Amino acid sequence: MRSIMSLMGLLLGLTLTGRTDAAEITIDVDTALANRLLTLSCSGQPVDEAEFAASSLLKAQLAHHARFGEKYSLENYVAGVRSIAACKAPDPDPFRFTALVTQRGQMAKAIATLSARKAELGDGAAALTTPYVPAGTRFAGSVVLAPATLSCGGFARGGHFFIDLPCIAEQVEGEFDAVRRLVAHETYHAVQGEFMPDPKASLSTVATPAEAHEYLFHRLAAEGSATYVARMAEVAGDGRYATRSREDARRNRSRLTYNFRLFNLVVEALAEPRQDYGAHFKELYGLAFDGAFGELSYFVGEQMAAEIDRDFGPQALVCVLSLPPEHFILAYDQALRTSERLEKSYPLTQATLAAAQGLSRTRENGPSLGRCLPGAPG
Questions:
Q1: What average pLDDT values come out for the chain (378 residues) when binned by 10 residues?
Q2: Residues 6+ away with beta carbon under 8 Å from 337
Q3: Rounded Cα distance, 193 and 1, in Å
Q4: Domain spans of the chain?
């Protein structure tokens, strides 16, 4: 989802099969890393760099953080561990280890609380996710509580998902529902990876309007449906992260008409080739999807997923997501034509629909929307 990250990680070990019976999702809570750093905090024990260098979890975290600067290195991480072992707040502290010294009691309580309620957390996240996965899916994952990262949110990297423990430790009871929904969002991304087709180009290699539109539509479908599954506008609790997430979701819902307009304008602005197309694409993509601008198109995609679900049902939405991403655009347009639209569902422009239809025509003998939606063309 999103930018909520600092110290908790979700290790997504997954098993998915193509069976036709009911889906089954199980999510555990792994506290090993959190307990290890808590044990080292103010212990005076020596710190073995090799222990951390061998951690697959830390390797994934550092790979994610590397794009934010050279300071997010193994050396600086180990230096932070050595500082907290000596009961000192690191200075500088790029990984925000300080909470393990100054808020050690709160951190310990948060770890104990989430560990004690792990069945409730896993079952609650699974309940949100299960209706929107393919029949027969088998998924097993675990939320790994991790104690030092760079922001207040969550991210996935290399099969691991991280959640910010310091960000939620102060009011862990008031954050529980927000954590449950965050886990549902990221779990859904893990399952999406097994049934949603990838775009041909990546963010860094997009070079043509067709590649740009395919990538844009894929991100709209993936992030929008995961946001719909989690439904942060409904989050309960008075914790800092819960409050911020609820307010962000409700604020974006209140301005959906502008978010739809922005998305349509981005699609239109990417329609013509140009010499600096890759850089041009990244700038426009950022306006629509980056956290710095509020991830506006996450909420456009959420509304589109809600409309498709309301009109055709959860498994129809899953079916649409399994098709090339332009079908998410076309399915939403079909839903608007099928019945009275939801209050916040706004039409896409002819330029956006034309971009989706153009992509669809390039799929020789490809799947059609009619396979998923009754009455749809094809």
A1: 39 40 86 92 97 91 90 96 97 94 94 93 94 93 84 73 86 95 92 94 96 98 98 96 95 95 98 95 96 91 97 96 97 91 93 97 86 78
A2: none
A3: 15
A4: 8-195, 209-371
